[in-house]
Write a structure and sequence with these properties.
The complex is a heterodimer of chains A (114) and B (115). With 114 residues, chain A is mostly beta strands. Helices cover 0% and strands 53% of the residues of chain A. In chain A, strands 2, 4, 5, 6, 9, 10 and 11 form a seven-stranded mixed sheet that branches. In chain A, strands 1-3-8-7 form a four-stranded antiparallel sheet, with no helix packed on it. In chain A, a hairpin with a 2-residue loop joins strand 5 and strand 6. In chain B, a hairpin with a 5-residue loop joins strand 4 and strand 5. The relative contact order of chain B is 0.33. The chains are: A mainly beta (114), B mainly beta (115). Chains A and B meet through strand 4, strand 5, strand 9 and strand 10 of A and strand 5, strand 9 and strand 10 of B.
């Protein structure tokens, strides 16, 4: 079974631009979550999608948004990029449903904002 | 929200040595995972262990949920074990509701194994 995939793997953008990152979950997994990892703040939760609905959101500004498609694939968008948005963005998928389920992570997208 | 603390922050070992990494959490949980982050940044699942003990080769983990801690044991360490080890717990405020994705991570333990 294929794992979680993320595209692109590396990205360089300029301040003020916007960026879209993509995540394809493991087949059969319906929940996709996004995390930001920086040296200063560690791993922080951005948001989670299930059945095309955002069910939970972390403490990030409105410039960070996302969506989930009917096939469970998810995208996240960051508008008006700032230098501080440089980070590794990780997505995770799980089966979700009743009870707590194991999370599986993709390889990440490393975003550099110059 | 729940707080997760890992210790030690850094650990340097010689190949062949054993080690124990600790994860303390501030509230009851029903989902605890251990990850190894490889040099390229990917989080590799080691254990899903809300309670009890599990073993996988040279690695084993124990979670004592009632005392709010988990331990990761690495025996006969190898240079390929180097990297950052994270524990993460599902925020219990959401576990019983409709959200299952909000993992709270510790700050990690940086393990360096020298040949």
């Amino acid at each position: 079974k294929a794992g979680v995939t993320q595209t692109p793997r590396y990205l360089i953008k300029t301040r003020g631009q916007q960026v879209t990152l993509s995540c394809s979950p493991i087949s059969g997994h319906r929940s996709v979550s996004w995390y930001q990892q920086t040296p200063g703040q560690g791993l922080q939760f951005l948001f989670e999608y299930f059945s095309e609905t955002q069910r939970n959101k972390g403490n990030f500004p409105g410039r960070f948004s996302g969506r989930q498609f009917s096939n469970s694939r998810s995208e996240m968008n960051v508008s008006t990029l700032e230098l501080g948005d440089s980070a590794l963005y990780l997505c995770a998928s799980s089966k979700a449903g009743q009870g707590a389920h194991e999370q599986y992570f993709g390889p990440g997208t490393r975003l550099t904002v110059t | 929200g729940i707080q997760v603390e890992q210790s030690p922050p850094d650990l340097i070992l010689q190949e062949g040595a054993n080690s124990t990494l600790r994860c303390n959490f501030s509230d009851s949980v029903n989902n605890l995972q251990w990850f190894h982050q490889n040099p390229w940044g990917q989080l590799i699942n080691l254990f899903y262990i809300p309670s009890g003990t599990k073993q996988n080769g040279r690695l084993s983990a124990t979670t004592v949920a009632t005392e709010r801690y988990s331990l990761l044991y690495i025996s006969s360490s190898q240079t390929t074990d180097s990297g950052v080890y994270f524990c993460a717990v599902l925020d219990p405020a959401w576990a019983g509701g409709t959200s299952y994705g909000k993992l709270t991570f510790g700050q990690g333990t940086i393990l360096t194994v020298h040949p």
